Amino acid sequence: MKAHREGSRGQLLRLAKVVGHDRVTEMESLLPNGGGGLFATKTIRASAKTSICQYAGNFVDDAPADRGSYLFQIPDGRFIDGDPLKGFGALSNDPRDDGRVNAQLRWNGEAVMMYATEDIFAGEEIFISYGLEYWLHHIERLPQEERAAVMEEQAAAQKRQEQRVESRARAEPDTWGDSSSEGDSSQRSDIFSDNGNLETNSDSSTEESYTQDEDVVDLTADSAGSESTTPPATAARARPPLL
Asked: What's the pLDDT at 91?
């Protein structure tokens, strides 16, 4: 098996002791043309309360028209443009295979954090799903067969949306002329209804710190002078859903 070296960004983030420095780092992704990926350096247990790392970056008010940036929308309407030099979360890749996804991003009221959805063992790559909107805006990066799959996903999502609208219309009572119906919460649209990747963790105060030191991998012995692999322009890069 090919020995993976720690990437330069992972080294910098660990030296800066950003959130997750004691349990993850950057190494060459297992995905073809994946560039740098996020890997566990110790066993990480599935948890809805204990985060793996933060998806950090710059806050922006509006999404650019060309959607060239890697943006993650938060509940107040703003976006976080992920920066792999500010946090480990922006290093995670999307395998385009739900069976390999083992983590997800959630807003905890203060920041976007990454949480394990299943146990992740030392040396394993950490994968998230970017969401349908991301791949619709970066479909040229995918092989032809995967492009077809994305278009099928879009058609299915549109059909689900239409069914929700029809179901809601049938369920609403006749309130013609009834001013009390104004402001009905059932008429609000959920900006995250079609994404399914952003969740709000209202119990952020209970977030715990990792105490286990099991299966720690020594990544420093062979990392001197190593460089992070920069993926080609067509490589699937590590970023969360583009909304």
From this structure: 95
List the domain boundaries for the chain.
1-130+195-215+239-243, 132-170
Whole-angstrom distance, CA of residue 29 vs CA of residue 128: 13
Q: Is pLDDT at 110 greater than 70 in this prediction?
A: yes
User: Across the chain, what does the average pLDDT equal?
Assistant: 74
Any residues with CB less than 8 A from the CB of 193 and at least 6 apart, and which? 161, 164
The angle at the Cα of 17, spanning 11 to 21, to the nearest 5 degrees, equals 65
Identify whether the C-beta of residue 53 lies closer than 8 Å to the C-beta of residue 88: yes
Distance between CA atoms of 79 and 62, rounded to whole angstroms? 7
Q: Which DSSP helix (H) or strand (E) runs through 24?
A: strand 24-28
Residue 48 to residue 91: CA distance in whole angstroms: 21
pLDDT, tens only, 202-217: 444 444 443 344 443 4
Distances, alpha carbon 243 to alpha carbons 62, 78, 112, 231, in Å: 11, 11, 15, 23
Tokens of 113: 């954090």
User: Which of 1-5, 38-42, 214-218, 231-235 is predicted most confidently?
Assistant: 38-42
In Å, the largest CA–CA distance within the chain is: 74
Please give the CATH topology (third level) of the domain spanning 1-130+195-215+239-243. Answer: Beta-clip-like (2.170.270)
**What backbone torsions phi and psi does residue 68 show, to the nearest 5 degrees?**
-75, -25
